[in-house]
C-alpha cells in the first residue's frame, strides 16, 4: 500500500511532466497558430473587397491587390505608409496593428488615463483599375466580441463590401451577421449624407422599408430575433468609422484642390 508521501510525490511529478509536455507542445505549435491567424486575417481583408482566395494563395493575392498599408492618428494624419515592401513614412505596418488595443488606448485617452497616441489601420486595394479603402472593425455583440472589415469606393463614402465575424453569437439569430444575405445589404450604402455629414449605417429593427428613401441609403435590415447583436453592429460601425472621418475628409479636400 502506497504512503501519502509517495502518492503526493508521484502526483507532483506527474503534474510537472504533463505541464512540461503541454508547454513544449504550445511552443512548437505557436508558429503554426500565428501563421493561421495571419492567413485568416488576410482572407478576411480580401473578402471585404470581394476577392476570394484559398489559404495557399492568400499571401500572394494580398501582395497583388493590397498596394498600400496606411496608419492614421485621430486627426486623420498619415503616421505610417507602407508600400512596395518598404516604409515611405513611419515604421508601423497597418497589418501589424491590433485594433482592439488601439480602441482601448482611445478609451483611456478619453478617460484621461493614457497619453500614448493610438494609430488606426487602413488597407488600400487596387482592383480592376479602381482603388478601395478597407477599414477593420471591432465591437461587442450579445455574447462576446464581433469584428469585420468594410471597404469603401474612392469617394470614401459608398460601401463596396463588408465582412462580419463573431465569437459566440446565437446560431440562427445574432450569428446571421456572418452570412452573405446580411452582409450584401451593405453594398452601395453610404456613411455621409448629401451635406457630407457623417451618418454611419444603422442596422434597423423592423427593417428599412418604412424609412424615407433618404434614410434607406444609410440603413440595412436587422437580424430577425437578434436585436442586441444588430445594435452591436450599429454601434461598432459608428464608433470605429467616426475615427476615420477626419482622414476621409482630408483626402477629399486634397483631391478637390486644383493642381498647381
Characterize the largest beta sheet: strand count, sense, and whether it forms a barrel: 7 strands, antiparallel
Helix content: 25-40%
Strands ordered across the widest β-sheet: 3-2-1-4-5-6-7
Number-wise, the strands total 9
Mean pLDDT: 90
Structural class: alpha+beta
Walk me through the structure:
The protein has 260 residues and is of the alpha+beta class. The chain has one domain. 40% of the residues lie in helices and 22% in strands. The strands form 2 sheets. It has a 7-stranded antiparallel beta sheet, sandwiched between helices. Strands 8-9 form a two-stranded parallel ribbon. Helix 1 packs across helix 2. The longest helix is centred in the N-terminal third of the chain and has 44 residues. The N and C termini lie far apart (94 Å).
SSE layout and pairing:
Layout: H1 4-47, H2 58-65, E1 66-72, E2 78-83, E3 86-89, H3 99-110, E4 120-127, E5 130-140, E6 145-152, E7 159-166, H4 180-184, E8 202-204, H5 213-216, E9 219-221, H6 227-256
Parallel strand pairs: 8-9
Antiparallel strand pairs: 1-2, 1-4, 2-3, 4-5, 5-6, 6-7
Helix pairs in contact: 1-2
